[in-house]
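Supplementary Methods, section 5.1.

A reviewer requested that the exact input to the structure prediction be made available. We therefore reproduce it here, unchanged from the version used in the analyses.
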Amino acid sequence: MLTHPPLSLYVHIPWCVRKCPYCDFNSHPQRGELPFDAYVDALLADLDQDLPLVWGRVVSSVFFGGGTPSLFPPQAIDRFLQQASARLRFATNLEITLETNPGTAEHGRFEHYLAAGVNRLSFGVQSFDDGCLQRLGRIHDAAQAEAAVKLAQDAGYRNFNIDLMYALPGQSLMMAEHDIERALTLRPTHLSHYQLTLEPETAFAARPPAGIPDVDAAWDMQEHCQRLIAQAGFAHYEVSAYAQPGMQCAHNRNYWLFGDYLGIGAGAHGKITLPNYAPPDADAETATVRHPGGGILRRWKLKGPSAYMKAATSATRIGGEEWIDAARRPFDFMLNALRLPEGFDLPLFEARTGLPRAAIANELTQACERGWLTITGDRVVPTELGQRFTNDVIGLFLTEDAGRSRSLVSG
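The structure derived from this sequence is encoded token-by-token as follows.
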């Protein structure tokens, strides 16, 4: 039987100053003055229509992602949070994260975000090497990145993440090490460290830049930087995430543990567990098989900011939705949980998917035989080999029927 997992709120701000050539997120270059008030109105209208999916549930974290959320003034963020807290039950000591681009930070603004309730920042630095930043198409330089972090610290922020990338065009092992060292001098509580990938339909995919390190060089960078980060007291708690004790990102951790999240804003995705519920048009004879003990709904919103705002008060704001059937749930669960080096408990799998552990017994046996997983009691933990071949481990759970989830695309 499915049970309600923790619930988070994701808010997408789709604009940025300039689209980076490696970015495959739903982001749109700024053209003139942004419609701050109109977009917040749209966010609230969107939220109002999704509320019946989560009546009575407590929100455990809020995350403003993008795009570049720091393009929005603190007053707009404050208005949204005040109105959202009147509609939803916010947990005590709620984690509220705002992504910020160092190139958009201005003096005097961080204290206003803090006053609005934003208690955690995530800086999209990517590198402290000016040449690498230019090749990545970033709008800031290393000095601006350091200045932005220090401004936030002066404003009272102690909980913040720094995003770094490695295997960048023209980057050497020593340059990757230097990025880690400069980040650590700024005393972050959290680091994200991930490899540059050429995602489909990006400018880099169409025109790959010269000088990208090969697979072996990228692996050397990853291992070397991981050692440096560990020596600085950061625990490696997710594939590309490291945190000081007690400072893991609650919002992202909820994703990895197959929690629920409302997705509000242009292009935002959400996942909601609905116990004892199946789609209204489900075949009566197969509904209990396809949706045992309830349903898991994935829903996403229109991507275009203008189209989204125009449709925000109606069902046409929904870009599509999909019910995750029983056959698909093990794969979706593992796609998230196996990103955690600590692994997961089998009772958690049962509660989050509504399926018995017997549903994945064969796949777990295969993974253990190949040296990818270990099982001690109820605990499933990826081995060092399994962490290196995470995609292969997850692929074991992609069965023939796993792609047959019910898709209801509305626009």
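Residues 188 and 204 are 30 Å apart (CA to CA). These observations are discussed further in the main text.
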